[in-house]
Amino acid sequence: MEKIAIDGGVSLKGEVSISGAKNAALPIMAASILSSGENIISNTPLLRDITTMGNLLTRLGINFQAEDNRIFLRTHGINSIEAPYELVKTMRASVLVLGPLLARMGKARVSLPGGCAIGARGINLHLMGLKKMGADIILSEGYIEAKVKKLRGASVYFDIPTVTGTENLMMAAVLADGETVIENAACEPEVVDLANALISMGADIQGAGTNIIKIKGVNNLRPLDYHIIPDRIEAGTFLAAAGITRGKIKIKGCNSEHMDAVIIKLGKAGLKITKEKDGLIAEGSERLTSIDVKTMPYPGFPTDMQAQFMALMSLSEGTSFITENIFENRFMHVAELRRMGADIKVEGAAATVRGVKSLKGAPVMATDLRASASLIIAGLAAEGTTVVDRVYHLDRGYEKIEEKLKPLGARIRRIK
Ligand code: EPZ
What we know:
31% of the residues lie in helices and 25% in strands. By secondary structure, the chain is of the alpha/beta class.
């Protein structure tokens, strides 16, 4: 299993370019199912999850090609409606083919995603919405078996503003009969990017980015030719890296409008962040100040930055209270950070982080995508060498992170 080794203590300096957003690319790839033709998606990151989604679409009969940071999807002949367990178990976002398959084919057989390290991650709200739109759905042998003659518009209220639930329903609704209203919809920039991609295909969608999204069904959609937004979580991860190493990094190509909560919180902690027209400049001069954070749905502080923020607070001055409100088990990085000397106590959804003067390099293990990023960040500042194991988690969401960190001065290498 591949590992990443880091010799800490270098202040990172230089420029880094941000890749396209994984969590925008995945639903937009699934949206290609909705039209028959040649689809092009540009500014896509070269990540394991993207390849997995490509493999899944290939299984449906779609011709998938990835060339650098562009994806080509030929969707003339869909000859299967099944998303098999062996693919879905490696990536929960596979459930995003459910809505588009029902919209285009009138049926779908999608494996239930199964467990996940960070929480139960149910999809009951996805299924509730699709049933309201007329789909017959049964669960059998670990699979969702769904069919419908033609989806019809409905009013759907989400108890939780589920990101992929909102995305699945939007993709189901764009070809349905009549109007669908999603209330308490997710407002994430990735949801807005999907809506804009669907609109570029000819869909009629109002309100994306707010809690109420209205979709009027149309008869057909033209193929995609769409440019993905930059990854706000990758950009936030590099902000944290600048802060923890007291360096100065120009983060190019990010969209700071998607990052207000992170910029405000890191700014309050003492990271000097300057907005430029083509990105951000982050300058971490002295030791940061401990501040509190609660993860919330967008535009609140993103749960996908919680682990990286905790690594930063491990070395700050004072005590930070971090509350994880989105997932019930997203503190697995705590035990690993403790191995490096961090002083963190967890009680339920709340973690108390007492800043220490220094962290010590150690062998640690990645448990999920963002936990692995927090261990890399901690390793950049720790004294000595940190070896992060199971970096396949990292490769799911970060495009060659060591290749982006090396030019900034990081002493980092991948070891077999
Ligand atoms: C998306 O996951 C992201 N993944 C996650 O990023 C991100 O952490 C999450 O949104 C929250 O922002 C993609 O976009 C591919 P949710 P998603 O549905 O859609 C519960 C990463 O690091 N829930 O908004 O699965 C659920 O259990 C990943 O890139 C239900 O109970 O998240 C969770 O506690 C990790 N029933 C909460 O809602 C449902 O039907 C939020 O989940 C749906 C969700």
